[in-house]
Design a protein that fits this description.
Layout: E1 3-6, H1 15-24, E2 29-31, H2 42-50, E3 64-67, E4 70-73, H3 75-85, H4 93-117, H5 130-158, H6 173-188, H7 190-196, H8 201-212, H9 214-221
Helix pairs in contact: 1-3, 1-6, 3-4, 4-5, 4-6, 6-7, 6-8
The structure holds glutathione (GSH).
Length: 242
């Protein structure tokens, strides 16, 4: 099965959570919007999918995965679908629900990371909401990030994976997403993250282990892994870091 991932080209964004799972599993996939329009792909193909008024199950926003006749949106929903197919989640229903629950909590954190630099509206520029962003980012990095990370650290500590895995005893898509969260927060809020580092030793070690996995290391060194930037969901503005 060749999977088609539809996501905005030029940024990692939420598409990266899906990309990491596809890359770790060495899945056959095409990153459609990054491909040439002359081959029927590119952003035009993404827009066709978003604007298809005949679709019975239209997606609201990217990332979107096409798998044969299925068109699936919402990052956590895509990973719920891909997890068993890519061998990135345990078999038991309780474990799959747990993985999905954690992924939805990660989605909440990612939405808050976005709102730290766009607290009023995603439709306005950052410079149009800088004052509000400063207040929101302070709350995010001093209250919300510690609360989320303390929770995820506790999940690692208490789970059956001996501190090595978020779900079960083997690597899952949640581990890959957790890697991305730690990497993104580290880029966006280096000073704030340096302060909490002492309290998240298991998450820090998980981030390192994922980065060193052969397929992850190859992906991260490739041109397919775009750099973090101030166009992305995790953004570094020195005035928002503490
Ligand atoms: N909850 C959705 C959020 C999707 C989302 O916000 N996608 C962004 C790009 S990362 C987008 O293009 N949003 C357009 C919009 O919200 O109008 C998910 O996790 O996939």
């Amino acid at each position: 099965m060749r999977y088609e991932l539809y996501y905005w080209p030029g940024i990692q964004g939420r598409g990266e959570f899906v990309r990491l799972a596809l890359e770790e599993a060495a899945a056959d996939y095409v990153d459609v919007a990054r491909m040439p329009e002359r081959e029927g792909m590119g952003v035009a193909a993404l827009m066709r999918l978003l604007e298809d008024t005949r679709a019975a199950r239209p997606p609201f926003a990217p990332p979107i995965l096409r798998a044969g006749k299925l068109v699936i949106a919402q990052t956590a929903n895509i990973l719920l679908f891909l997890g068993p197919r890519l061998g990135l989640v345990p078999k038991a229903e309780a474990a799959r629900l747990w993985a999905h629950q954690l992924q939805l909590t990660i989605a909440d954190l990612v939405a808050e990371a976005h709102d730290a630099h766009h607290p009023i509206s995603g439709g306005l520029y950052y410079h149009e909401q800088k004052r509000e962003a400063k207040r929101r980012a302070e709350d995010f990095r001093t209250k919300r990030v510690p609360k989320f990370l303390d929770y995820f650290e506790g999940v690692l500590e208490r789970g059956p994976g001996g501190g090595r895995h978020m779900v079960g005893k083997a690597l899952s898509y949640v581990d890959l997403s957790m890697f991305q969260v730690i990497a993104g927060l580290g880029y966006a809020f280096p000073r704030a993250m340096a302060r909490v580092k002492r309290k998240i030793s298991r998450l820090t070690a998980l981030h390192q282990r994922v980065m060193e996995r052969p397929r992850m290391a190859a992906y991260l060194a490739s041109a397919r892994r775009l750099p973090f930037s101030t166009e992305d969901v995790f953004r570094h503005y020195p005035e928002l870091d503490g």
